[in-house]
Structure formats: C-alpha cells, structure tokens
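Researcher: Structure prediction, please.
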Amino acid sequence: MERDEEKANERSRDELPSPLHGEADGLISFDEASAILREAAGPLEEALVAIDEAAGLRLSRSVEARINAPRFDVSAMDGYAVRDTDLPGPLRIVGKSYAGSQAPAGISQGEAVRIFTGAPVPEGADRVLVQEIVEARGERLEIAGDYGEARHIRARGSDFREGDTLLEAGTRLGPRQLVGAAAADCAGVRVWRAPRVAFLATGDELVAPGAAADRPGALPDSITPALAEMARQYGATIVGSEVAPDDPDRIEELAAQLLARCDVLVTIGGASVGERDFASRSIEGQDFRTLFSRIAMRPGKPVWSAKGAGGRLVLGLPGNPTSALVTARLFLAPLVTALAGGGYDEVLGWRELELTEDLPAPGPREHFGRGALWDGKAVPFANQQSGAQALLAKADLLLRQAGGSDGLSAGQTVQALDF
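Model: Predicted structure follows.
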C-alpha cells in the first residue's frame, strides 16, 4: 500500500471536491495514462549553444561535417614516408613532416621524409616505414626489418567528408557524441532546451536526511534526492526542491513559487483520499486542467497529472519512496525525455525475460514488481511491499503483470524494464 493510501480515512473519494478542473476521477490503465502524457509532452525551445555547454542536451538539428577528416593524407605511425617502388632502398632523408604543419614538398625517386603520427604525407609517398624497422645514418636510411603489407597512411576523408552527417537530430550529447560534433568543426550546435523540473514533497513527518534520529516520529526525505537524480539522468535541469508540511495554504504557496520557474512540477505524496492529503489541490485556482487522476496500477494508483498555461505540467507521485521511484521511472523518465527532444517511448524498452522463480498473481490492478537481473534472467523479489526501501539498491528490473492475470512459474517469461 502506498503511504498516501494508508493515510486514507473513512471518507469516500466521492465526498471530496475534485482537486483540479477537468475530467472526473476515473481509473485509467497504465497504457492510457502513458498515451496522455505522450501527447502532452513535446520538445521545448530550440537554442544554439556552444559545444562546451552542450553536454547532456539533445540535438534539434543534425550535425554535418564542415571539413574532411583527415583533411589530407596523414601518417598513422612515427617513421619515414617513402615511395613503395623505391624499396628496399637504401634511401636518402630529405626533410621532416610534423602534425599540424603543411605537407613538405613531394619526394622523388630514392628519397624519404621523416614523419610523425598525424603529419601530412608528402606528395608522391605511398607508404610509411615504421621507425622500429629502419636505421638512419645521417641522411642515409636503411631498412633493417620486414616492412610487410601495411602502408600506415590514413587517406584524406577516410573518416568522414565535408557535408557528411555525423550526428542525427535527437541525439543526446554525451562524451562520445561531443567528439563527433567537435571533430565536425562546429563551435556550437542546435539543441532543445533542457526541461526545468522542480519537486514538492509533502508531509509533516518529513525532514532532511540526517535529522530524523533526533525527532520522534520523523522520517528522512529519502525520495526527493533520488527523483532529482533520475530526472537529471534523463536530461532535466533541477530548478527547485521544497518539503512542505500538511498545510494546504503552505503547499499552494510553495507550488506557485516552483511553478513560476519550472516546466514540470513533481509533487510527492498528498495525492490520495486522507484528510491531510493536500498536494493534488495545490494548484486550485490556477489555469490547469486534469490529464488523469488515478491509475489502475500497483504501486501507483494515486498518480495524477495536470497541464497548465504555457505547457507547464504537474506530475503527482505517491509518497511512499518505492512507489514514487517506480512510478517516476514509468512516467517521469519518459516525460523528461520527450520534453528534452527525445522519444517518449525510447526509455520504455520492455523485453521478455525468463523467470528464475515463481511470480504470484498480481491481483486486479496491473502490477509493476521489482526484481534483479541475474545471468540474463529475472529474479523477482519476495518482498514487494511499496514501503520496502532496502531492496531498491538491488533492483535492476521492473516486472510487469497485467491486472487479473494468473501467476507465472519459474521458466516462464515476464515483461521487464531496466530500472
């Protein structure tokens, strides 16, 4: 049971006012909720940013090479540039070629040029003899070993040519991709702006980690830092984080402050039917419409979402840390990805994995259980309580079971998502 559900009192949900303007409180499926968020999310503004500020952002336009690479024939080794027809020599050394220098004059019959890795190959040379197999005596060069078939020359444009597309639009720029963008000779790239995400956790019991031991009844806010890191991993910039007491006025005040500077506000807790569950009412009076309010899933029934002016989004997650992290992986991760310029579904790569142990029937709601990946198989955890936090560090997978389906036996397959 989610913490929000556990806080429910005897009042029915029908007796409470609808927290947002829009649809009635109806249970919808996980797939229906995903489709609604998929439709609501799209890339934010496009911007031209310097290459050294583009890490983690997604390209709004492809990157095309402005130069050839290599720009001319270059040596792949330290050694001597020669004409293959002059071998086995002896040869006369007539110059040197360094990386970054202009190519020396072309060589003629019987000549060699001292050359270093990345240096331009003189016109007429078609082989580089590695320095380990030659002996230089003054201007005279003699071959002292087998030079084999390798020519040790990287041809002009053999990596890529001017005009080639090196990175497609939608690519997220990590270290390897930044190499390509810089190699294309791009000082800046066109990208989608990173979505700005803020967090609002609610509950009188929540305190900063490190302070709970000194306060009876207090609980450390263990989920907000984890959710912030998850959002960063999928391309968000974190612009605020607050913990509010169970005071509707204070929650509404903090929500308004955070919404003024974010694209997505994530509320944590306060989304169920208890007398002190206020988060879902935090945006009353503002121009928001409900996208959905409850989902037929476990954990995650209280998850809700709304969309406001300027495309701002609110995503309400359960207060239980495990429930919040599971539903964030299922909804926040693809939402941030889509706002950042990626595809909503690209981070929802479900796959079939064989079970190592039996998996009980899920009950009436679709179930997203936790498990570990071992030797390419799914190991379901015995403890699936949404309040269990110790196992989260070992959970590699979410295991999906349709509501009302039968249990699965060891050896059968289950839908799994990297967690």
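Model: Residues 1-25 have pLDDT under 50 and may be disordered.
Researcher: Thanks, that helps.
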